[in-house]
From TrEMBL, chain A:
Annotated organism of origin: Desulforamulus putei DSM 12395
Function according to Swiss-Prot or TrEMBL: Peptidoglycan polymerase that is essential for cell wall elongation.
Family the entry assigns: Belongs to the SEDS family. MrdB/RodA subfamily.
Protein name, per record: Peptidoglycan glycosyltransferase RodA
GO CC, alphabetical: cell division site; plasma membrane
GO molecular function terms listed in the Swiss-Prot or TrEMBL record: lipid-linked peptidoglycan transporter activity; peptidoglycan glycosyltransferase activity
GO BP terms in the entry: cell division; cell wall organization; peptidoglycan biosynthetic process; regulation of cell shape
Membrane topology label: Multi-pass membrane protein
UniProtKB/TrEMBL annotation, chain B:
Membrane disposition: Single-pass membrane protein
Key words of the record: Cell inner membrane, Cell membrane, Cell shape, Cell wall biogenesis/degradation, Hydrolase, Membrane, Peptidoglycan synthesis, Protease, Transferase, Transmembrane, Transmembrane helix
Gene Ontology molecular function, alphabetical: penicillin binding; peptidoglycan L,D-transpeptidase activity; serine-type D-Ala-D-Ala carboxypeptidase activity; transferase activity
Descriptive protein name: Peptidoglycan glycosyltransferase
SUPFAM superfamilies documented for this protein: beta-lactamase/transpeptidase-like (SSF56601), Penicillin binding protein dimerisation domain (SSF56519)
Transmembrane regions: 12-30
GO biological process: cell wall organization; peptidoglycan biosynthetic process; proteolysis; regulation of cell shape
Homology family: Belongs to the transpeptidase family.
Cellular compartments per GO CC: plasma membrane
Subcellular location per the Swiss-Prot or TrEMBL entry: Cell membrane; Membrane
Source organism per UniProt: Desulforamulus putei DSM 12395
């Protein structure tokens, strides 16, 4: 099945960008999960009471990790090993995705859509696994499966088919209603978990795909902008007049905090503030891997998952974040190119959905950690620690490559 | 669909993505390139903690290098901010181990609120057994910190305590006043005496230990240390040996007088070098150990201390000078030329004024009395005559002021009063205030009583009746008032009282010794001082205090000569002859017995020695101690003996008549 022609037609620029992002992520995950000798109170007391090294004229203890050996030992933390395992697993799944011509996805559209809804329903059933005030996982023994991650790629596949079928019949609002229902059902299930961040990504994917599918651009733009205005108005009305809103207390807190995080420094604003301190204090060159005080001393929350970008900012500085964003941009640029070169509308829509997914994830995540978006808790694609996210993203990359490989009609 | 349309649409998406990335990268550039410094500071504040290392205060030495105040290490227990979760439990636990009230600890924590990273000191000078208990329970007592800190140590225990003062945690208002000097809550601050007066020199520069902490404020590692710099040392003019003698002698005399049945509540003595103003000894009894302040006093301990009378430095308290004042009149008489020293009176034992007789302390009188004999035997009649007939209140006051009475000497330690040189204005003011305090409320009470009655009276006849009754009552009180009113004015007996150092005269023993010194050194007034120099910990002299001349008394030398001669006779043939008989150094002195209404007399003795070439002067007071010579004289004698190295002092407790 693996044809030499296929290999020749892989988008290597895209693959190299993905490879570099993942390598980069492993280093940062290692730094973010380095355990700084947890101290019991006895040790703590000793530090308080013991004479400092400087008292005897010795230099203060060497900063963490000056020797290379120590680094290599430190590097392969449990989290890094697990993540490498996820990457390999994801590559296998991706290879499988490549082997199936993307046109064949359409045949399984119903199965995929139903599977998607079922998985999301299981999460909301008593089988769902909760953590940190949200129920987003299904416990599979050694792993926690996060269906909302896979839901994105599932919806891209089914919605691409859905839109292809309605090509040229997407001009009025009435025409768009079935589309909204198609995306809205899984989206509402995700919002119920609650997972506002992923829901927002859904909206992004939907509008991007609608636009490319030929829906009335004015209508799409109008709905997008109007929707935002409506949402903001609703939140405003909630705070002003106590209007009911389908958001949890902590989500509202985050929205409030977004307006002025420094006001609630020690409370709800803590994450945002610490994240900004981490990034800002990194400066141009950063403090060096394993040397960021915000990261290493755990001031930064969720530093290997949602706030991993802050670790890059702190330890590798502006140079580091620019390099990472450049890699992401290459990825997105190649994705757009694939969309524009796709053999058919279905391929273009699949690529568009994937690009929109990546773009929204990056915008929401980086915007959140740098304080220009509210905290909604989405991972940075291909970078944050986590198996479901990695698999979803690699499947998405697989879909892109699949469309790219089969771009020329003459091949088939 | 046409490929071109797709291409167009995807290009729009690309522009959108470029826009998003531009926004993100701009935001990151702003934070990381423009605002770096601000965020760096915030990051540092997150994970760096400075914990002060207390610097030892400067030490205090006597003039010969004997250490009077030093420092010793003690255990202190502090509490680091724990967040809200653990505080209650830990505070209760620590309180029970330290035997403190948990509320007290919570209060301290609240005061600390703005600087939560600083440990709050809970207890100082904690005994080792308690420390051991805390060590054993360390795991259950997160945030409890045991430190070793330098605190004041007093090798001579209570010696010189009134001069030294004490150190205690800085008070809120002191903190406010010294805001710019880097004091923090819990810092030690000199509260009285030299500790207070030389606080800026004695205080050291605290060092600090920089600690890195994690998000839970648990220390992760030490980042280094800034060594504390000890404060500067004081070298005093005090001689520890003389001081010891002074205190022992004072105590002995007070207890002796108590044994004899006098109240004898306490006493004061001070020895000064008449050539420089350097204080060689300054003692006040009863006394206390300054180390009691280290742990802090409970309310009860504080009240007991106040009751014991040990707190005030009696050398700076006000006493009637009594007969020790008489040299002022003698000097004024000679200096103004109103009287010749050889002029004499025949003393019948009383002084007649109008139809009143004022009795001399010696029934039957002193016979023929000239000025020298008048001093020697402390003849009241002579000085009444001199004061009333020849000088008058203004001249006496003028000469008293020449010798520094009514004016602060300017000694370094705080709390010195100026004393009172009586004047008619002073008397008027003082007594008026006294009378008004008594009669003012009485007048007011009558007015208040009639106010509602008059208001409710409707019948004009009834009103008139009430008005009359009110006036009658007011007049009755007014008559009482007027009975005393004449005593607002200066009366002859006020002059008479003033002439023998009684009445409104009130001076400190320090002023007395300074006055005697000026007589002894032929009229120079020196500023009394306690600190000779300030020396840095490595021995460099930072500041040296030279004798400071306030001025000349400005009287004829003969006048001072007569006073000295009279004072010499006091210890040879006069009122203190018994005390000093057989004493190998020629001492000149003056006894004083200050009458206090409703109490035993204050016993005073002032002296200088040697008579020919004076070196030191002494003033001693025994509160309610009886007769000046017998109660206070021996203290001066012991001090002179110690100063001049006299062995085998004849320990006479001879009775002195005055």
């Amino acid at each position: 099945m693996v044809d030499k022609r296929f290999l020749k037609n892989l988008d290597y620029t895209l693959l190299i960008a993905v490879f570099l992002i993942i390598c980069f992520s492993l280093v940062i995950i290692s730094s973010a999960t380095l355990v700084n000798s947890p101290m019991d109170f006895r040790q703590q007391q000793e530090i308080w009471n013991k004479d400092a090294p400087g008292l005897n004229g010795e230099a203060a203890s060497e900063p963490i990790g000056t020797s290379f050996l120590k680094y290599t030992k430190l590097f392969f933390s449990t989290f890094v090993k697990k993540q490498i395992f996820f990457v390999i697993l994801s590559l296998i799944i991706m290879a499988f995705i490549l082997s199936v011509p993307y046109e064949d996805f359409r045949r399984h559209r119903k199965t995929i859509y139903i599977l998607n809804i079922l998985l999301l329903l299981v999460v909301l059933s008593p089988l769902g696994h909760s953590a940190k005030g949200a129920t987003r996982w299904i416990n599979l023994g050694p792993f926690l499966l996060q269906p909302s991650e896979f839901a994105k790629i599932f919806i891209i596949v089914t919605f691409a088919d859905f839109l292809t079928r309605r090509e040229g019949k997407l001009n009025t609002f009435k025409d768009l209603i079935p589309c909204f229902i198609h995306v809205g059902v899984p989206m509402l299930l995700i919002l119920k978990q609650p997972d506002l961040g992923t829901s927002l990504v859904f909206i992004g994917i939907m509008f991007a795909m609608l636009y490319v599918a030929g829906a009335n651009p004015k209508l799409v733009a109008g709905l997008f902008v109007g929707g935002w205005a409506f949402a903001i108005g609703w939140v405003w009305a909630h705070f002003k007049f106590g209007l009911w809103i389908p958001l949890k207390e902590y989500q509202l807190d985050r929205l409030l905090v977004f307006i002025d995080p420094w006001k609630q420094w020690h409370g709800a604003g803590y994450h945002v503030v610490q994240s900004q301190i981490a990034i800002g204090s990194g400066g141009l060159e950063g403090k060096g891997i394993y040397n960021g005080s915000q990261n290493q001393l755990n001031f930064l929350p969720e530093q290997h998952t949602d706030f991993i970008f802050s670790v890059v900012g702190e330890e590798m500085g502006f140079i580091g974040v620019s390099a990472l964003l450049l890699l992401f941009f290459i990825l997105l640029y190649r994705g757009i190119r694939i969309a524009s070169q796709a053999r058919d509308l279905n391929g273009a829509l699949l690529s568009t959905g994937v690009v929109a997914m990546f773009a929204f994830h990056i915008l929401i995540n980086v915007g959140m950690v740098s304080g220009i978006m509210p905290v909604t808790g989405v991972p940075l694609p291909l970078f944050s620690y986590g198996g479901s996210s990695m698999m979803t993203n690699m499947i998405a990359i697989g879909v892109l490559l699949n469309v790219y490989m089969r771009r020329q009609k003459i091949l088939f | 669909m046409e490929r071109k349309i797709i291409e167009k649409k995807t290009r729009v998406l690309l522009y959108l993505i470029i826009f998003i990335f531009t926004v993100l990268i701009s935001r990151l550039a702003y934070m990381q390139l423009l605002e770096t410094e601000r965020f760096e500071t915030l990051a540092k504040q997150n994970h760096m903690r400075l914990n002060p290392i207390i610097a030892p205060r400067g030490e205090i030495y006597d003039r010969k290098g004997v250490k009077i105040v030093g420092n010793k290490p003690v255990y202190t227990v502090s509490l680091v901010y724990l967040g809200l979760k653990d505080t209650d439990r830990v505070v209760n636990r620590v309180a029970s181990i330290l035997g403190m009230d948990p509320k007290e600890i919570m209060k301290k924590l609240e005061e600390q609120q703005l600087r939560m990273y600083q440990p709050v000191r809970l207890a100082t000078d904690v005994p080792l057994e308690t420390i051991t208990v805390l060590e054993e329970q360390r795991l259950d007592l997160p945030g409890v910190v045991i430190d070793v800190e330098p605190v004041r140590s007093y090798p001579f225990k209570s010696m010189l305590s009134h001069v030294l003062g004490y150190v205690q945690e800085i008070k809120q208002e002191q903190l406010k006043r010294n805001q710019d000097k880097g004091y923090r809550l819990g810092d030690m601050y000199g509260q009285d005496g030299l500790e207070n007066a030389f606080e800026p020199y004695l205080r050291g520069q605290d060092g600090a230990r920089q600690v890195e902490v994690d998000a839970q404020a648990r220390p992760v590692r030490d980042l280094g240390i800034k060594e504390p710099v000890p404060g500067n040392n004081l070298v005093l003019t005090i001689d520890a040996e003389l001081q010891k003698t002074a205190e022992a002698s004072l105590e002995r005399q007070v207890l002796e007088m108590r044994k004899q049945g006098y109240e004898a509540r306490g006493g004061a003595t001070v020895m000064m070098d008449v050539r420089t103003g350097a204080i060689r000894a300054m003692a006040s009894y009863p006394t206390y150990e300054p180390s009691i302040w280290i742990k802090g006093l409970s309310q009860k301990q504080w009240e007991d201390l106040q009751k014991s009378g040990a707190l005030p430095n009696r050398v700076l308290q006000l006493y009637p000078p009594a007969s020790t004042f008489k040299m002022i009149l003698a000097i004024a008489g000679v200096d103004t030329g109103k009287v010749d020293p050889s002029w004499s009176i025949a003393d019948p034992g009383h002084y007649l004024f109008g139809n009143r007789a004022f009795n001399d302390w010696k029934p039957g009188g002193h016979g023929r009395v000239d000025m020298r004999k008048a001093i020697s035997e402390s003849c009241d009649t002579y000085f009444w005559y001199l004061g009333h007939r020849l000088l008058g209140v203004d001249l006496i006051g003028k000469y008293a002021r020449k010798f520094g009475f009514g004016e602060r000497t300017g000694i370094e330690i705080p709390g010195e009063p100026a004393g009172i040189v009586p004047t008619p204005e002073y008397k008027y003011k003082r007594n008026k205030a006294y009378l008004d305090a008594i009669y003012g409320p009485k007048f007011k009470a009558i007015e208040e009583k009639y106010k509602p009655l008059l208001a409710s009276a409707t019948d004009p006849a009834e009103r008139e009746k009430l008005e009359k009754a009110k006036q009658r009552e007011l007049r009755a009180v007014q008559n009482q008032y007027d009975q005393y009113k004449w005593d607002l004015d200066w009366q002859v007996y006020d002059t008479l009282n003033m002439s023998i150092g009684q009445g409104y005269n009130l001076y400190t023993p320090l002023q007395l010794v300074n006055y005697i010194a000026a007589i002894a050194n032929n009229g120079t007034r020196w500023k009394p001082y306690l600190v000779e120099k300030i020396v840095s910990p490595d021995g460099k002299v930072i500041k040296e205090f030279k004798p400071q001349k306030i001025g000349q008394v400005g009287v004829k030398p003969e006048a001072l000569q007569v006073a000295r001669e009279g004072m010499r006779m006091v210890t040879t043939v006069g009122t203190a002859a018994g005390i000093f008989s057989g004493f190998p150094v020629e001492v000149a002195g003056k006894t004083g017995t200050g009458e206090v209404f409703g109490h035993d007399n204050h016993a005073l003795f002032v002296a200088f020695a040697p008579y020919d070439k004076p070196e030191v002067a002494v003033a001693t007071v025994i509160d309610y101690g009886g007769h000046g010579g017998s109660a206070a004289g021996p203290v001066a004698r012991d001090l002179f003996a110690a100063y001049f190295g006299v062995q085998n002092v004849p320990q006479r407790t001879a009775y002195s008549p005055e």
